[in-house]
Amino acid sequence: xRLLVVADRSGVPVLSRxxxxxxxxxPVVEDLTGVVQRAAEWRRTVCFxxxxxxxxxxxxxxxxxxxxxxxxxxxxxxxxxxDERGIYSTNAWAQTADGQYVNLERSDVASGRFYVPERxxxxxxxxxQARQQSLRSQQTPLLGAAEAALLPADxxxxxxxxIAVILLGYVLVVGPVxxxxxxWLRMRKYTWLLFxxxxxxxxxxxxxxxHAYMSSDDTGGVLLITDIDEGGGVVRQTTLETLFYxxxxxxxxxxxxxxxxxxxxxxxxxxxxxxxxxxxxxxxIYEGVFPQNxxxxxxxxxxxxxxxxxxxxxxxxxxxxxxxxxxxxxxTTVEGRLRLRASLQMLSQQTGGEYEATxxxxxxxxxxxxxxxxxxxxAANGQYREWSQEQQFSWAGExxxxxxxxxxxxxxxxxxxxxxxxxxxxxxxxxAMSSADNPEEYVLVVLRRRG
Length: 451
Description:
This protein has 451 residues and is of the alpha+beta class. 29% of the residues lie in helices and 24% in strands. The chain has four domains: 14-49, no CATH class; 69-133, no CATH class; 160-214, no CATH class; 222-449, no CATH class. A hairpin with a 3-residue loop joins β13 (285-289) and β14. 25% of the residues are buried.
């Protein structure tokens, strides 16, 4: 435990953190009316418990006001200005929030001013209103990135060129070859016998080629995300696992004191046309006493990856890097980060693993040990992550951005709060452990590769 010295805080609420949660100690008084009537103090207390962002209108106790047309336009056009004709820019193109470009109207050739059409302002207003009103659960890009990275490394789709060669060969054999060869042999009466034979041969050839490209001795990877509090205690462990088999089978995943759900695949089960996801495999079957001691039984189809998310609070027997997790200077000072680098490099030599680490503070990156800089592109409590097989790191930036509390603040529930309580859903929204807008918080991220 941690002793709170509150002698100098008589009569006011004491705000404290405990693991992933927060706690408030109210003064011992006969009547709390006096505390509640101090509106600013009481509002701060409630917002602390609900993890409301400090810059939000709710925290300030004010009503949210929509931005003016000029303020809205400046979110897309940095140099936007207004005159008697409307809002204009010196650039003919404007980039929207979804990465698209809008061609502005040029109304004044002499001055070189390009004006924003009224219809475009209307679109931007509707987008802003939709973002403000949408507080529903939303899947994060982290899920799709993790699913893709956990596929077996030697599995790949059959190249289009190989498929084209097989189809071309089939057409040639059942067409010109059949006609000319059987004609030269005066055996055209056997055409209807040769056709099914050739079809069967090319069918087996196609299956063999598919197995050669998509079969693997590996059955998928595992990503472990272990959350550590400021005292070095393990408070939560999240497991993202992808199963991939060359043939259909039924698997059973035993669990103890944990929550386990099948994820709604974002990346792996997308259709070939558009972004509409394909139907998932059969629904899993839970057997036993949930969540104390149970098993999940799932049918996995051939070449159809299935992913799961497991949540365990205060797990036991977790192996962590042998560093002083209670020493906050390891992340808050330059000298401490140098000592942390030396410790991790020594651990890499002793254990044979490969560690990488960085510190995130107010949206800035403070590298500690970085083998590949692109791992951290995009972007005191610690978060230690390891995965069981060597993977490409193009998705690690998304992992860093999400878990360190750097979600885009203008959309969804994170426009209001900085964190969510542990829930175990496949949306992964509850993985954020820190608020990027809090100058007192540091996030230490350590990654270790295995295999």
